[in-house]
Design brief:
about 45% helix; 13 helices; mainly alpha
């Protein structure tokens, strides 16, 4: 999405009233830090232009944040006891913290104590996708930062989950089945590793078999790339297209080449399968718009506003005067 189109979206959302939903506002920092979005975009562009794979990492970081205690920046907190969200097993492969920290540092120099880390992360995720020529979306702002981050609370949609569990995961966060299938397409720029698919291609039911929901020729291809004892080699989630943010993910899933069980599971539900079929038939005609809408929906999950939470000075630690 071009900057011009993004501005049009901002105006449209304002007209529709999205700007004031749940105490968030597209112009939240207009008076106190008018350059906030420009600063975050500049920093994000600097990092992603040198390392494009950060786009997927930052999108995932925002997703992890919102699915644990809501979009409150709690995933960014460090713990000396290694018991924060970022220390949980599903979070150990998260990357991109340095981008958020750099943006926050720049903001603190310009507008100290104004912009929350939760908002920085929401903006960085959007700007990272824009930096690789993906869609953009207007980000309502005004989130506040949480003071609690617990490893024990990390419960995320699993890559091994079936469709019923995935739909429940999203419903629990106020998100729809459409949000599920649309946001899953963020895998179009995703990179995983052989360890996460080892069982699926070598011993799915404990009998030395593979998951029959996968195309057999694709399983053979994966076995060539991932030997039985290889748990670390990288593998693209949208083969041959991982550098481009587009709707090709749906073609991959429709061809039974979804890398994770959770990708293939999208074909097991009438609503999510219908969406995939439509995107395949129309070459992703509505995908950019749908992805933008679902990312806005994600950004509203269990947010803190008003007097709740705080505005952290540093994203990795709560303010010294906070009681945790």
């Amino acid at each position: 999405m071009t900057i011009k189109n993004l501005l049009v979206l901002v105006v449209l959302m304002s007209v529709l009233g999205v700007s004031v939903s749940q105490n968030l506002d597209l112009n939240f920092y207009k008076n106190r830090c008018p350059d906030a979005e420009a600063i975050v975009r500049r920093i994000t562009d600097q990092y992603v232009s040198h390392q494009p794979s950060l786009a997927a990492a930052l999108l995932r970081l925002h997703f992890h944040d919102c699915f644990v205690r809501g979009c409150d920046g709690s995933v960014l907190l460090k713990s000396p006891n290694k018991d924060a969200e970022r220390d949980a097993l599903p979070s150990l492969s998260l990357r991109g913290y340095q981008v958020v920290d750099a943006a926050k540092t720049a903001l603190e120099k310009k507008c100290p104590g104004v912009v929350s880390c939760a908002d920085v992360l929401a903006l960085v995720a959007r700007d990272a996708v824009l930096a690789i020529n993906g869609p953009g979306w207007a980000v309502p702002l005004g989130r506040r930062d949480g003071r609690i981050s617990r490893k024990s609370e990390v419960s995320l949609p699993s890559p091994f989950a079936g469709i019923a569990a995935l739909k429940q995961n999203f419903s629990d966060k106020g998100l729809t089945s459409k949000d599920l299938v649309v946001l899953s397409a963020g895998h179009t720029i995703g990179i995983s590793n052989c360890g996460l698919i080892n069982r699926r291609i070598y011993n799915f039911t404990g009998k030395g078999d593979f998951d029959t929901s996968m195309k057999p020729s694709y399983v053979r291809e994966l076995k060539r790339r991932c030997k039985p004892t290889d748990f670390t080699s990288s593998i693209e989630m949208d083969p041959g297209n991982v550098k481009t943010f587009d709707s090709n993910y749906f073609n991959v899933v429709a061809q039974r080449k979804g890398l994770f069980s959770s990708d293939s599971a999208l074909l097991d539900d009438p609503e999510t399968k219908s969406y995939i079929d439509t995107q395949v038939a129309t070459a992703g005609s509505s995908f950019n718009e749908d992805f933008s809408e679902s990312m806005v929906n994600l950004g509203f999950v269990e947010i803190l506003t008003g007097n709740k939470g705080e505005i952290r000075k540093r994203c990795s630690s709560v303010n010294k005067d906070s009681s945790v």
